[in-house]
Specification:
Blueprint: H1 2-36, H2 39-44, E1 58-64, E2 84-92, H3 96-106, E3 113-118, H4 124-133, E4 139-144, E5 147-149, H5 151-158, E6 167-175, E7 178-179, E8 187-188, H6 190-200, H7 206-214, E9 218-220, H8 221-228, H9 240-250, E10 254-265, H10 272-275, H11 277-292, H12 299-303, E11 317-319
Parallel strand pairs: 1-2, 1-4, 2-3, 6-10
Antiparallel strand pairs: 3-11, 4-9, 5-10, 6-7, 8-10
């Protein structure tokens, strides 16, 4: 009994400490973020990271739409890390004004950054698939243009001896708001999520819903694009990631949580989810229903419920920096 009380006390104390830490971090970060994540700071003060024993290289694939003021923050912790050999940014039909601002913000990073653009906005799913396909390395982190990878994410990836192409590796902490680490090193397949949904409505759980729809994953480019390409015409307004995960898992693959991997997930008024939350909830619930009914993804069953576009064939332009 005494041990149980002590354990409960320790858990409560740890939760209080974590909340105080996050509160303090937010206060400090709000004050200094404009400096820490600025172009000048990344160029001059981010430490160059050498790993002479590591021969593997990865790409970072970044999807971008009308966020020229934020795109530079994605470069922190990756531009000067030699394990990242290229950073591919695909613009999803932003205005020319936004594109010119991107060019101005990124020109000093041209040693590693490659900027591409499509003239028409096709949505997040198509852009994620195409951004990955533009990478020259077999593996990439598929990153949203308003987030920043922490060193712990890259360290967690490279601490794995081998990478399984049939697994998408997921960060355990979308700092500071979404903590998935309680799920440990769990591997999720289609059957497991279906079972969890039918037993305890796991997809209705706020934290798990953030995990399965949060994205910013590490994946094998060829495996991911081969499976998702047949569905590239679907246009999701906010729930693109759970939609992609549903297709991925339906094809016998897995999601694996990496508890020690974390990144900075910015919550702001111009986020895709906030701007399209009503549509996003409808899309999310439709996919959750598919898991509940244990119905694997097919083109036929998805065409009945989700919007699709016809302009996928348009050219992607490489923009010199």
């Amino acid at each position: 009994m005494l041990k149980l009380k002590m354990r409960n006390l320790i858990n409560i104390t740890q939760k209080i400490i974590n909340k105080l830490y996050i509160t303090l971090y937010r206060f400090i970060n709000n004050k200094i973020e404009s400096i820490l994540y600025s172009k000048e700071f990344i160029q001059k003060f981010d430490r160059i990271k050498f790993f002479p024993q590591e021969t593997r290289k990865i790409s970072i694939a970044i999807t971008h739409y009308e966020r020229p003021e934020l795109v530079v923050v994605t470069l922190k912790n990756i531009f000067r890390d030699e394990r990242v050999s290229e950073i591919v940014i695909l613009d999803d039909g932003s205005s020319l004004t936004s594109v010119f601002e991107c060019i101005a913000n990124l020109k000093d990073f041209k040693a590693k950054v490659k900027l591409f653009r499509r003239k028409e906005n096709l949505g997040m799913l198509a852009t994620k698939i195409q951004a990955c396909s533009l990478c020259s390395n077999p593996w990439c982190i598929l990153l949203d243009s308003d987030n920043t990878i922490f060193n712990s994410y890259l360290n967690a990836i490279f601490s794995l001896e081998t990478w399984d192409k049939n697994i998408i590796y997921c960060p355990g902490y979308a700092f500071p708001n979404y903590d998935f680490r309680s799920y440990g090193n769990t591997e999720f397949d289609f059957e497991k999520i279906c079972n969890f949904q039918n037993k305890n409505k796991i997809l209705n759980n706020f934290i798990f819903s953030c995990f399965i729809s949060g994205g910013n994953y590490f994946l094998n480019v060829k495996a991911f694009t081969n499976i998702l390409n047949p569905y590239i015409k679907f246009k999701l307004y906010a729930a693109d990631q759970i939609f992609a995960n549903y297709i991925w898992l339906s094809n016998g693959n897995k999601l694996k949580l990496l508890p020690s991997a974390s990144y900075y997930h910015r919550v702001h008024s111009n986020s895709t989810w906030i701007l399209n939350s009503n549509r996003g909830h409808v899309e999310y619930n439709r996919v959750a229903k598919k898991f509940e009914e244990e119905q694997p993804a097919t083109l036929e069953n998805l065409l009945l419920e989700f919007e699709n576009v016809a302009a996928i064939g348009q050219e992607i332009e490489h923009i010199p920096l």
